[in-house]
Amino acid sequence: MNKYLIELGVEELPSSYVSGALKAFEDYVAAKLTEERLSFSSITPYATPRRLALIVEGLPDKQEDREELVKGPAQKIAYREDGSVNKPLEGFMRSTGVSEEELIIQELKGVPYVYANVIHRGKRSQEVLQEIIPSAIRSIPFEKTMRWGGKNLRFARPIRWLLSLFNDEVVLLDFEGIGCGRITRGHRFLGSQSIEIDHVDEYVEKLLENYVIADPQKRKDEVQVQIRHLAKSMGGEIRSDDDLLEEVTYIVEYPTAILGRIKDEYLYLPPVVLTTPMRDHLRYYPVYDPDGGLMPYFITVRNGNGEYKDIVSAGNEKVLDARLDDARFFFENDRKRSLEDFSQGLDSVLFQQKLGSMKDKTQRMGALAKRIGEELKVSQRTLESSQRAIALSKGDLVTEMVQEFTELEGTMGEIYALADGEEAIVAQAIREQYMPRSSGAEIPQSTTGSIVSLSDKLDTIAGLFAIGKIPTGSQDPFGLRRKAIGILRILKEKKWTIGLEELINSALAIYVDNQGLIFDDEKVRRQIVDFFLQRLEGMLAEEKIPYDVINAVLAVPEGTVLSIFQKAHALQDFLAAEDRDAYLDAAGRIHNIAQKNPEPQGAFNEELMEAGEMALWEASQKLMEPLEAAIALGDFKRALELTEVLTPVIHQYFDDVMIMAEDEGKRNNRLHQIHALDGAFTRLFSVREIVH
Predict the structure, then answer these.
(1) Three-class SS of 41-79
(2) Is the predicted pLDDT of residue 343 greater than 80, yes or no?
(3) Which of 288, 223, 297 is nearest to 253 (CA)?
(4) I need a surface site. Which of 117, 402, 681, 682 has the fewest CB within 10 A?
(5) What are 186-219's pLDDT values in tens digits?
(6) Rounded to an integer, what distance in angstroms lies between the CA atom of residue 195 and that of residue 186?
(7) What mean pLDDT do residues 629-642 have?
(8) From CA 20, how far away is CA 17, in angstroms rounded?
(9) Is the omega angle on the peptide bond into residue 436 within 30 degrees of 0, that is, cis?
(10) DSSP assignment, residue 280?
(11) Which of 573, 508, 523, 525 is nearest to 546 (CA)?
(12) The pLDDT of residue 473
């Protein structure tokens, strides 16, 4: 079988673009090959900062032939009265390339038509690739694009060359006048800038000879091996950092790890003040001792070989010295004032034009934290520590350190609070207010920090929704989706039994009470609830809950965030355990009648019951108390099992009893019972959402 190689040679791509672009390129080519009837066994992606490449293996020589039954004119107009071919049929035969003998007659809705079996001969694979690859390149998405050299194409960086080989044959691509052939380029400084590839099989090896490791996974593995070995040689270790590793992988083509030293004069600074400029600004790896302490070393990864390591190390040390000089200056200036003093200046820091200053925000957070704490029945000490943490929570935003290194918000607040003699739990909560900082990251550990974090995030979401700043499509400049997921994770993982809608109502009410904000309360509340339900839907899907179970649980989102997850898992297990069709049919019949017939006025009257109604009434009465207890305990497995007991009784009831009796009293009585049962089922899920 055949192999095809396509390589796009580009000016250095931003590291954050490469992985996503490569995946999109691969997916598009795979989909188009399938669509064009070109089978293949595998696609192997390759990428460096200067190239995106795919090797497709197992390609046939040509497309599969395709047979198509093509409909022509109606028989009555296809032939003249003497049976000879009429003009409409002549045109059809020309367009399909068939002879009269190959035509067939078939009826369509009782009308005979002329048809032809047309064989579409497959094109050579090279021809198909010439059509697919240019559109595939154009389809690659980037956050930002540019034009260059008068070309119509927009791309992240200028494309400088195209390598396109089918085994050993060049497949020329007509693409914006960019040169296409069998030439690639090695490392910008160490390799040849004109490497001829005679066959696809030579590609990876010839690049390696020219200081390019084309396989990103191999390059990533090489980085890890080198930095760990170098750290170990100094008696230290490297902390796992997937984001930094991904970034380094896509800024080098030939990695070489180099050790550098941190000057002793900087080591008195808090470790995070040292590691933040190293990691986030210079892409250096800090080295830690086995006990977790920061050692006076760092490791940088050079895009090149091991020559002149001492010179490279010294250069990187000078760059770090400049950064740490700045950090020391900011830190020492900040320590001339207390965090409380910084916090006094928050009234001049704008949170949002319509929502007031950061001082206003902390006041709203304090009011919301008080309500949350009281609802959770936390201790007086926790209430007081959360209020103190909130009062200081945004103070570090006006420090020089955080203004320079914005990613240290909260972290510097904790450091400065401890230095000022604040309680450890208060300082910890200042840091934890921003947690979780990313998807899947750690949530706050302390109760105080969790309350502060909830208050901060809820205040932001409620306020921005109230003024119409709602995320749309991929646009979420305030990170509200991440904040919402953070709130849901805290409530779920802390197992807090406080209602989500109650929290939303409190946050909105505080905007009215404290801020005098005017908005459509019901509309905004509904928008926020729906926004959270969308996040819940995604979180449940990540836990492999079937879509119909998710819809069934979220259609009746009664209870807490924790109970929604418990309910979903219990319902998934309950439905998967055995055939539940009879149960779902019973619940469905109850729900359908309840939906079509509003519950009547008045009370249920036992004296109006007939013999056929007694069994269901007695079973349902026996059910209600233990069902309520199971729901209160979050034991939804037990709750579902309790309602299942009603299955045969409900079916028998419908066999014996006419719900819509002529007697109004009996009809209303039966509808009362139907609505009571429907209410019991819908405490757990919406049966109409379940596919069975």
Answers:
(1) CEEEEEEECCEEEEEEEEECCECCCEEEEEEEEEHHHHE
(2) yes
(3) 223
(4) 117
(5) 999 999 999 999 999 999 999 999 999 999 999 9
(6) 7
(7) 94
(8) 6
(9) yes
(10) I
(11) 573
(12) 78
